[in-house]
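Internal tracking record. Fields below are filled automatically when a chain is submitted to the structure queue. Please do not edit lines marked as system-generated. If the sequence contains nonstandard residues, flag them in the REMARKS field before resubmitting.
Queue: standard
Priority: normal
Entity type: single polypeptide chain
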Amino acid sequence: MYNSDYQAFNLDENTRRSWYSPEALLIELKEGMTFVDVGCGDGFFSLLAAKKVGPNGRVYAVDIDAARIEILQKKANAVGLKNIVVAIGRAEDTVFCEECADIVFYSMVLHDFEDPVQVLRNAKLMLHQNGRVINLDWKKTKTDFGPPIDIRFSEQQVIDMLQSVGFCTEASEAGSYHYIIQGIPKHTL
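SYSTEM-GENERATED OUTPUT FOLLOWS
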């Protein structure tokens, strides 16, 4: 299933914000949109997205860890967010909807999936005609934190995977430790 060679760690909000601006990553997300958070953990980005898309929007969130999904649900309930649909399961097996999503988002998890190419194929199924994939990931450089360097994907590896399933890609920086690769389905160009 997922890579078990290292122990995943939890990131608190302050640490994440010292590395990158989550709001800047979600700048294109607007009221009424649909956001899919794959490998959502306890919902850091799901909760931010749910607030941005508002009551007329929808957030779908999936993670294999039932305990993390439970935390996400408790956090959403505590702030009255009712627009998040959660699922416990493998990303390789999850397609929430077809052609409904504006953004399918991965936050530092693509390397954890057993079959990341299948996960990206699922994203393409979920995206509507003008949707996009956003992958925030670890740079393939040695750090004292994060996943081991040997399991991290380089920007080029992610670009190659996205292009192999029919996306045009765009790369950008996201602070000292991370990069962003966006994928736009080729049929929209």
